[in-house]
Each structure stands twice: as structure tokens, then as C-alpha cells.
Amino acid sequence: MTHHLSILTADHSAAELIAAISVTTFTQTFADSNTREDMDKYLTKEMNVDKIRCELQDPDSTFFLAWDGDTLAGFAKINSDVKADAPDCGNPLEIERLYVLQEYQGKKVGAALMNHCIAFAHRNHHSTIWLGVWEHNHKAIAFYKQWGYEPFGTHIFRLGNDEQTDILMKKVL
User: Which domains does the chain have, with CATH numbers?
Assistant: First the structure.
């Protein structure tokens, strides 16, 4: 475990921090498996400060920030807006992002964020939590399976110009 992990709900002032850690964690995880052009196109479009600021203002989105003392170690973004890919159930909650800095992986930061998301889902009467994970991200797939998530479908995720397959996974609460 980290020295002093705390998880806080982000407010609008966290947009720059979230954008920065988003770019860092996404690059750490996916740069070796994708072209620089596709990575740059995706990061510029999806992980810029203005887009994060809009997401922070969306009443259906919530960001949880995992702090190790005064260092941002990771974050999760949940979404209660029901999307077309959501499992067919009463009130699904999506974990849209769960990103942890490489140096904090294996130190229970991801587990703490997952526990926080599950507790939020229970408090808000969600019956299922779901997410999409790249079919080649075996480390993340194994993590989600450890938490009881099971595959229920796939969808296309566009990274720059590259169409990739995400495995959709769900956990019934």
C-alpha cells in the first residue's frame, strides 16, 4: 500500500491535473502498442483540458482522484448516463476510465479506486458496473476478472485512425 492514500471527488478546478495524468498514464500503457500519430490524435482530441473541464461539469460523470500524500497516483471516471453499449439491466454504472501511474501499479491504488467505484454504485442503487477494455490489455483484463467482471460483448474503440476492439465486461452487484 502507499504511504497515505486518500480518494477525493474531483471538482472543476482539477481539469489540468486530470488532463496531465490522463496523458501520462495513457501514454505509459499504450504508446508501445500504437503509432505515435494515432496516439497524438487521440490524446489531443480526448485528453485536453477543455474536454476534461466539460466532463467535470457533466452531472452524469464523476472523477475520483487517488492521492498518495500530495501526489496524484491515479483516478477513475464513472458515468451514470446509459449508453448504447451498456448491459441490459435496470441501472448500469460505467467505469469509463481507471488509470494509475506506472510507478503506483501493484501498490493497491487500482484496488482502492475500484472499491470506491463499487461503494458509489451501491450508494446510488446501481445494479451493474460495466466497462470496456482493449482486447490486448491483458494486465487490465486480468485485474477486472479478479474483481468479478465477466465479458458480455465487444465494441469498436477508435484510437486516432485505428479501429480497435474493446471487450465489454460487467459485474452484477
Answer: 5-130 (3.40.630.30)
- Taking the whole predicted model, whether its pTM rises above 0.85 is answered as yes
d(CA 146, CA 148): 5
Spell out the SS3 assignment of 18-30: HHHHHHHHHHHHH
The three grid cell numbers given for residue 79, joined into one nine-digit string? 458515468
Query: Is 144 among the residues known to form the active site?
Result: yes
CA–CA separation, 48 and 16 (whole Å): 8
40 pLDDT more than 80: yes
Distances 169 to 18, 46, 87, 132, 141 between C-alpha atoms, Å: 24, 22, 9, 6, 9
The residue annotated as part of the active site, out of 99, 104, 144, 149, is 144
